[in-house]
Amino acid sequence: MPRRLVHNSMHTSALCLRRAKSVQDRLEDYGQAVALAEAGEQALAAKILSPPALERRRILVIGHGCSFSSRLREYALSVAERMGSDLLLLSVGADKPDQAWRDSFTQLATQAASDWALQAGPLHVHVAHEIRFSSLEDAVSELVRSCGRIEFILSEPKEGEQVMGQTGLALFTVK
To answer: For strand 86-93 and strand 170-174, is the pairing parallel, antiparallel, or unpaired?
Structure first.
């Protein structure tokens, strides 16, 4: 795979691929694993470097606030079914201290994700949902580091621009 894939704005397809530039997160994981191995914690080091073998691959789908577009849903479900992957939905809200606003955001995001789960059931695709209150970049970086076997990221163009280069994963945007 080429090191750098560039989206041509003249291209008319609804999907573009961008390969992330940074591998900083992966290097940090390797550093942690080496430190643990040197301290005699080989099992923990191995756990950091290799996700569980029985775990299915996941596709990270980034929502637009507390919602997801129907185009993104159709594409993500289709790809997940063909690849035998699960979907991990991410809804990111502003880090506001207002609890009523957070509760409302959580309710709307949960409803949006449950619509995905209903459509995914007959396709044998498992849908998990995470809600974070932070910047989009921080939420994606933290989630990618904490979850194993994320194959790539799907998003809409606005969110894709914000997270490009944050992980070592391929980023697909659906227009």
So the answer is: unpaired
Q: How many residues does the chain have?
A: 175
Q: What is the value of pTM for the model shown?
A: 0.69
Q: What is the dihedral of CA 175, 132, 46, 36, to 10 degrees?
A: 130
Which residue type occupies 16?
Answer: C
Q: How far apart are CA 46 and CA 38, in angstroms?
A: 12
Q: Is the dihedral of CA 13, 14, 19, 22 positive or negative?
A: positive
DSSP state of 23: -
Q: Could you report how far apart the first and last alpha carbons of the chain are, in Å?
A: 23
Q: Say how far apart CA 126 and CA 87 lie, in whole Å.
A: 6
SS (HEC) of 56-110: CCEEEEECECCECCHHHHHHHHHHHHHHCCEEEEEEEECCCCCHHHHHHHHHHHH
pLDDT digits (tens, 9 = 90+) for 32-61: 877 877 788 777 777 776 654 446 789 999
